[in-house]
Amino acid sequence: MTATPSPDAPPSTLMTDEEYGALRASAALWAGTSVLITDQRGRVLIQRVDYRTTCLLPGGAVDKSESPAQGAARELREELGVTMTVDRGLAVDRVSADGSNAPADMRFPGEILHVYDGGTWDDEQIASIRLPEGEVESIEFVEPALLPDLMSPGDARRALSALRARINAAGPVLLENGLPIAPTVLDRAGALRTARARHHLPFHAGPAPEQLSVVQAWGWLLASDGRVLLLLEPDTGAALLPGGTPEPQDRDNPLATLRRETHEEAEAEFGDPQFLGHLCDPDKPYARLRYAAPLTRLGPPPVDPATGRTHIRVLATPEQALEFFDWGPPAANQLAAVHRARAQLGIPRAARQPLTELPDATDPTIF
Question: Which residues contact 43 (CB under 8 A, 6 or more apart)?
Fold first, then answer.
C-alpha cells in the first residue's frame, strides 16, 4: 500500500494533482477579517448585530479570490458606509476548531482571522458612519476593559491583543485563540483589562490657587531618549505615573511628595524638575500637580509599602503613556506642556517604538 504524504508535502508521482488538491482542501481553514477602530479617547468601536447576542469588531468572512485587506475594506463599506484604505495589520489569529462555540452542524474547521488597524477617528469621521438597513443594529465606542463583557471570550481576547499590539508599536502579532504566542510586557501585565483612570479635569499651566488643597503630585520622568517612566500594577495591569498623595512627613511640599512616592513605587530618582501645571475639579477645592524631570537613577524593583506590590516599570513615549489613561480633551494641553519641558531640558523627542520593560537599572542609556 502506498503511504499518503502529509498535507504540507509537495505533490509526488504517487498522487495525482486532483488527489493532492483534495488532500490540501481537507486541511483548509476559514479566513476572516476585522478592523480595530478607536475614538480620540481610546475607546474601541464595536457593533451590535442582529444575528448574534455578543458584539463584534467591524469585519466578516473573506470572500473567494479576495485578500484579507480587501475584505476588511469591503466590510467597512458594507457595515459602516465608510470607504478607506486598510493596509496596516495588527494581528493574525489562528482560531482552533475547538476554540469556538460554533454549532456542531456548522462543522467549523478553524479559522485564520486578520485584524487591521482602522486608526483613531475624530468626530467628523464618526459622524460619517452610515449603517446598512439590516445586520448592523448599532455601533458604539466602549472602554477597552468592557470588551470581555460585551464580546465573546475569543473575540475580546483578540481585540485586546490587537489593541496592545497597536500601542506597543512592534508590528503585527501572531495569536492562537486570541492570545499572543510571544506575549509582550503589556500582555503579561494584562494592560487595559481593567478600567483606565478617568478624569477629564481641565489642565492649567500656571500654579494652583492657594485656596486649593494639593491632593496629588505626579511626575513625567524623562529618560535620555525622551521616553517616560510608566508603572503598571502587576495584578490589574492598571497604569500610573510616578507620584502620589501627600503625607504628613512631606510638610506640605509637593516635590517632597513626588520624590518620596517615586522612590517607594519605582526606586527611582530625578533631577531638577520643571513645574508643568495643575488639574482642578470645578466641584471640589483640590489641585493635582504635574511636573517633568530627567530620570537620573533607577534601582532594583521595590515593593511599594502602600500596596505591598512590585510595579512593572516600562519606558513609553509620552503619547503611548497617554493611551493608558482616559483623560479626555484636556490631556492634549498636558502633553504639550510635557514636550515644552522636555525641549527645555535638552532631551530629544522620542520616536514611537516598542515599550521597554525595566526589571533592573543596568542599561546606561536610560539616563
Answer: 141, 142, 143, 144, 326
